[in-house]
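Notebook entry, cofactor series.
This is the third protein in the set we're modelling with a bound small molecule. For this one the ligand is flavin mononucleotide. I'm keeping the input format identical across the series so the outputs can be compared line by line later. Sequence and SMILES below, as received.
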Amino acid sequence: MNTSKAGKRKPTHPQAEIRASQTGSFLTLHEIVKKARQRMDDENWDYLMGGTETETTMHRNRMALDAIAFTPRVLRDVSAIDCSASFFGQKLRIPVLLAPVGMLERFDPDGAAASAKACAEFGIAHMLSSRTAPELEDVAAAGDNMRLFQLYTRGDWDWIEDYIKRAKDNGFSAFCMTVDSAYYSRRERVLARGHITTFRSGIEGFIHQTQLNWDTVKRFKETYPDFPLIIKGIATAEDATLAIEHGVDGIYISNHGGRQLDHGRGAIETLPEIVDAANGQATIIIDGGFCRGSDIVKAVIMGADVVGLGKLQGLALAAGGAPGVVRMLEILEKEIITCLGLIGASSFDELDPKAIILPAKPATEPHATSAFPLLNLTSGTY
Ligand SMILES: Cc1cc2nc3c(=O)[nH]c(=O)nc-3n(C[C@H](O)[C@H](O)[C@H](O)COP(=O)(O)O)c2cc1C
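Returned structure with ligand:
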């Protein structure tokens, strides 16, 4: 029924009629991607799937993951597998976090509330973007999941503090500042459509994003020593070292899914040097191109605590709302269990760095959907 309690008609959203029974029928991740493509118009598809300029960074995310091969061990009794993980003192069913994604309402009418609900049902963490609907308080009320809050800085310290207090008051376990967006990139899939979205043009307070520096990090930790701080967008050992020196609790390795700086390294390529620099003194989160259970196993073997999902989250939401995200996570979990079992580990604790070898030769040309070879989308995107 498309009528609110007050009796007013609400506008129909293209995703509104999705039922859990429909999403339960997805057996593979590529079916989810295919359904998402069918349900999304070209504009939303390009917003979700596009990278910056030549999209080299985005492609390198996949290329770097594809260049890691497993060296499996056998005869180890893997009849019972535990793929849970610990993250800031809380247990996650799999070592996965739904990454902060702006404008999730473009993929599902409930926006970030749908992601939060899915996390609560499945048992993983959600990082809420400050650039999505609905408001922080409504997302916190949507699901009893582990939640973290991510901020794009659009104001002075008082403005930042207002968000810190709201996040604390609403049960968010940690606060994250995204620092890889001092300038907005040129995403040509969007620019080529001849319009710049309101989000990217003349943004009020954007100057604060460009002025961000380590003093803000210092001030945060001095003022809120007990509220975990995550810095998202770390891409070098040098910045990881500085983060540790400033008392940062979580280092979030990310190139924004290839949506900010073009011609960067694939995210997982940077993981070993950052893990070394952090030296066990911070939680390590990574994202960028992660689409399959085996990708997640590779990251954990190399020292990540948790892996973030950006595009895959948007695709699952578009395909089936909150139940679609739950289904995507169930399939990922099956892939993780299969991968762990086949490399001879009963849990992530049993993983040996020798279980992988690199560089291996990638078997596929990387592109936005190259992790799903059975998809029949011309040129990999349409
Ligand atoms: C549509 C979209 C919107 C995004 N919005 C944000 C955001 O609001 N804040 C942020 O820190 N990162 C944002 N990101 C980046 C993601 O948090 C994440 O770093 C990236 O998507 C990971 O790569 P993947 O998409 O290959 O998984 C966004 C990514 C996408 C695809």
